[in-house]
Design a protein that fits this description.
The complex is a heterodimer of chains A (about 725) and B (about 100). By secondary structure, chain A is mainly α. Chain A has helices spanning about 5-25, 35-55, 90-115, 120-140, 145-165, 170-200, 205-215, 230-245, 250-255, 260-270, 270-280, 285-290, 295-310, 315-340, 340-370, 385-400, 405-425, 430-455, 495-500, 505-510, 525-530, 580-610, 625-630, 635-710, 715-735, and strands spanning about 65-75, 85-90, 220-225, 225, 545. Chain B has helices at about 5-25, 30-55, 60-90. The termini of chain B are far apart. Classes of the chains: A mainly alpha (about 725), B mainly alpha (about 100).
Chain lengths: ~725, ~100
Amino acid sequence: MEYTVGNIAPIFLAPVLAFVINAFLGRKLPRQGDWLATLSIFVSFIFSARIFSDFVFGKFASDNFIHKTFTWFDLSYGANIWKVDMGVYIDNMAAIMLLMVSGVAFLIHLFSTWYMDHDEKHGRFFIFLPLFTSAMLALVLSDNLLSLFIFWEIMGFCSYSLIGIYNKKEKAGDASLKAFMTTRVGDVFLLLGMVAIWMVIGSVSYVDIYAAIAQGKFDGQAVMGISLATFAGLCIFLGGMGKSAQFPLHVWLPDAMMGPTPGSALIHAATMVAAGVYLSLRMYPLMVLGDLTWFIAVIGAITAFMAATIALVQTDIKAVLAFSTISQLGYMMIGVGVGSYNAAFMHLITHAIFKACLFLSAGSVIHSIHEQEMPKMGGLRKYLPYTHFAMMCCTLAIAGIPFFSGFVSKDRILGDALYFGFMAGQNPLLAIVPILGFAGAGLTAFYMFRMMFLTFYGENRMHHHAHDHGHGHGHEDDHGHEIHLEHLSVRQNIPLLILAVFTLGFWFAGTLTGQTFGKVFGAKTEWFKILVEAPKVEKFINHPRELLGSTDSRPATDLPVAVYDHHSDTQTGYAGPNPDTHKIHKAHTIGAILSIIIAFSGVFLAFLMYIKKSVKPLSPSFPGFTEVLKNRYYFDNLYVDIVIKKGLLGLNRFLAWFDMGVYDRYAVDGWEKVNRVLFTASKWFDNVVVDAIGVDGTGVAVNLFNLVLRIVQSGKIQFYFIVLITVLASYIWTVNI
Amino acid sequence: MMGLTSYLVISLILFVTGLVVMLSRKNIVAILLGIELILNAAALNFVAYSRYVTGNLDGHIFSLFIIVVAAAEAAVGLAIVIRFFQIKETIHIDEATQLRN
């Protein structure tokens, strides 16, 4: 097993190649190059699958990793070492992530070839889609924060381009700008955090950061009175909050649905929002060192609950999914915060799969009936059987119904949160984390089934409504009233069905080798649990660097094979001392029972409200609160009306007054007056000294000299001879005397 | 008996004649002739000193060179005079004012 440039680089270079070709030649290619983009992602998928099989099937060893570097630029002088290394860092987490990103992105590409067909932005869409995917793949492969940041920003740019792809719609332009600016707030902090880390250890490589944490290099360092680990960790987490749409910076994600639905699928599932959680997981040791885990858990809990409540009242099918994404990202952050490292990562993977499927199904619905308002749908189960099947699987998964993937991952996060909030001896106020988490889980089950029932069940409400063009693509024609029975189509349905298969729980709860295949309950032999664990920082001390292209120093055969121990619970470490295994087991048992009860009651309530109609929807009873939810807790108003209009515009007015009243009046005009005086003096000097005396004086002097010279320089050659001979003769005569 | 003095006197006569011709005549061809006389005076001096003072052939060789250079100079000078005449239709020295101003 050798890892060289040749079999790592194609993972992200193949989509880059497709991007370049499509960007310059896309118009000339058949179908504007969408097949090329899809094929390039498939190439990435093949190479990723090879790495995945090496890491996951080759050996169940959780501490294996590959780290190869090369010097990007070297500014060392003398004894000062100042060089920046780039490189590749692959561990089990990256290997799983690569397979998920490339696999989901491939299916999204395949679906997009159907969805974007005959769309005016077809070609442009397939320029940015592969670039987006390649940036995410490269981000996963990065071994340091600097290259991560580069690809992070490329993704920011691609999301901007994809959200605003219908550039003639003003709302799309606004949404793309909003997404770009909001995530930029987080990015500034991420950069600040990188600078803080660089200040201490002179490197931003993960391996160096882990080693520095193990060696205690962060101890005693402080910035502005707070510990440097806290400062750097907080800044990096703020970066992740921007990208992963966490509580104060979540406002961009709902608007991101202005783009085409497959683009939303890519942003919401595999790439953009996953990057923030991935970064938080990578920097988990720093978060623990900086004692930030409780903060992450609280932010995650607030996000999870708040977004779930907003999703209750949304009528746009994509808006429900957008808020459910924010809510699920909140769960991932809870997972990071309460120390269930592998469950948070597992939820990232399971969520990516079922959310991609949900968005693609929504795309399938929207494209089939040219409508995205749920009150105007209904009864579509008869017309779109395959889409209904796929979407139902994903809804069961996200709602946390047993035997589906969402249950496996979310239940473990909630179980750990329960332990964290009530049993770990933390601050009693942190009980808010499991309370909000469980409440959000119930709401998730409710609003997801509300969406399913409104869309696919009940009577069809389409014919009674005028057809407006609220759908997210360029067709303005009006043949949407006629719904045709969906036939199984490779590009439309196969991606959905493949993703739906992977929403089943046993893929994640089993061992992938068959010993205890399908053991969903109990959750003792999950391959995720064995493979993914928080980095043990001690093993990174003095870890030798390997140059890119060198052969691996540790051959595969020497790697330790993990022992299947059905009784050892490789629970990850909390920030606190030795976790009590018994208590954790108890918390998990209670958590599992609680979440099943909550999930089923949420589904049942939705069933009563929207199918049986025996319970009236609550929104008319609480008009005030519904209004608050519909306005998304006024966060957009807060940012636009208060932060921007009051705060920023006030600041701008003050700056304008300062510019015009102070700077312009005194500095600029005063400078003008000073200049006037200087100018007068300078003018006098120029006119009198330079011009009159210098220039004209020279001319006069030359003229005078000319008068003399003109006599001598007669031009008569014989006169010159006479002068010559006279001078010569007089010289000889003088010398002879 | 003719000695060194006789040659020098003849050389002086040739030199002064050439100098006067060169300075007084306005005809370009005449000026060229004057220059030839001066050159010949110099050549005669070389040969005379070579014969009576040094006793070797250095002076002879020098005068041969002078004759060659004089011939070349006359050829160039006459060529200039012919072109000058073609342009100005005169060979008066005071008309050669093209380089003025």
